[in-house]
Amino acid sequence: MSIWTILWWALLAGAALALWRGTQSMTAKIVLLGGLLLVAIPDPLGTRAAFWPSVGEYQMDVHLNGVVVESRRSVCVFCTSRVRGERWQLTARFLSGSYALSVKGPQPYALAFRAGRVLQGGRALAPGCTTGTLEADTTFDFTRAERLDFQVGPGASCR
Amino acid sequence: MAAEVLARLENVTKRYGGREGLHRLSLELPQGQAVGLLGLNGAGKTTALKLLAGLLVPSAGRVEVLGRRPRDERARIAFLSESDGLYPWLTPADGERLMRGLYPDFRPARYRELLAFLEVPARAIKTLSKGQQGRLRLAMALAREAKLYLLDEPLAGIDLISRDRILRALVQEWREEATVVLSTHEVAEAEGLFDRAVFLKEGRLALDAPAEDLRAQGKSVVEAFKEVLA
Amino acid sequence: MNPRVNPLPTLLWLELRKHTGWLTVLGGILALSLVVVLRVRQEVAGRPFGDQGGLFALQFVLLFLAALAGFLLLLIALGRASRAETWLLLSVPPGITHQLARFIFGATALLVFAGGLAGLLWWGSSAFGLEVGLIGMLGLALYLVILGLPLLALALLGRTLTLAYGLSRLGWLSGIATALGAFNLLGWLFELSARTIYSFLPVWPLPALRLAGQDLLGEVPVSGLPSEPLLYGLVLTALLIGLAGRVWDEVEA
Predict the structure, then answer these.
(1) Contact by Cβ (8 Å): C88, C167
(2) What is the pLDDT of residues C125-153, one digit of tens each?
(3) What is the ipTM of this complex?
(4) HSE (side-chain half, CA atoms, 13 Å) at C243
């Protein structure tokens, strides 16, 4: 702990003491002590520091078990693309873009979305859950697809 | 039969930081009594009144009005403060609108009578003299039908003519059932108003006596005041 | 309190009277913004399409600065404590009623001001051939106003806390603590919003935006703005007003 940290804490403790004794209003005391506590411990669980870098994480162009995914002009809000065993999963709160999937053999898939427009090889899908098997190369086009969960590979489901 | 106690201070001490504004003051204020709270500047008069009004909380001891915390009974307490500022743009008509909306016991007709009697001009406060401002504030306070009137130095810094009008308004508006505590160091002029004189000196109770008893002893309140201060 | 007396209209009237000067300044900002839009419209009239970008940016920046200045003015107006407060402390309505009246006044002034600026932006944009949906634009202004409400409530709380530290003359320290605490609190609110946007509430629609018949928002991945921050903002606002009301009831003066 640096000397500056100790000084900063001492300053906050002094301010807290002065503010506690400076009024008869219990609510004012509690509010201001709460405020100083927020200043003193800005990240009590250590989750804040980890959150913001994770927002930018988004990797695409996946090669997995005979599935190749290439994304084009994809813009999304809170996207995650990950591989779970032999299954590839893409989740997004909002997604606009085009994904070309090349498959060497049949691959099960599941695609769920709440609203927006999703075209599978030019065919519009209804919001909700769609499952099936990809037999050939297919392009999925998303326009403002909301709450998307797209899985390709063994065990794919809309769960 | 003794009158019902309307308000009481029990062993009340009020500290401001390291300084004591009031030290172990105990007072009982019966219903219908007019009490003069007397003392020099800094004696603790304003502190005692603010404690009774609920504007201050005692550092030790207890303050009750009608058996509850004064702040909970603020609908029955009319407090005229020496130090409070009113809005500079406020006219007597604005004052009426404000009081009507904020105090259910405000009586507009009485307020207008008081304004006329006290000769308060119908102009914004910022254009009024200190005496006229004091008279307006008094009219606002006295136009309420409160149980407890706390008047802090209503005569301070006010010219002689205004003082006379204020005193006459006080005599005229006195309601038998109301308790009035009036603090002043203009003892000579106000002494005819009091049923009881409470003298404070350096935050402590120096003398608490019915005005009648003082008179029976052949003393005026002013003489008693001088004795206490000596 | 006598149920016949409803103090809210009186307190709203009092706020209006107290803040006449500030409202005049806000009106002045709107009037200046109108002058800016009028001048820009005149300038745009004779220019080729390619030369209009700079003017559009200038108009947008000036209207943005006007919005910022107006909002800050309103925050200062609501956050300033005056000596006359002491007199009000002993009035019969409880603290929450006083704070609610101030908040309603501030929020209404902000809404009218933001609505006026949004209208000017809408009108100013039409000079550039931009077709913006007026309802959507006003909706966007409302969205921003709702986001600003916690700050208005914080200003009210900060002012009341200053009042609560009047006797000990520590109002300055309470002001610093409030500002620092508020900064961190808003950080938490921002993070909570970021973690949960577009997750459980329907989106707040964006205004339609077209140029020469082409939808300029066609490529935007979202169909609207997230509503979750509005919910958090409103909850926080209610909490702050409640606290400000409680502090008011406990203030010494």
Answers:
(1) no
(2) 998 888 999 999 999 999 999 999 999 99
(3) 0.89
(4) 25
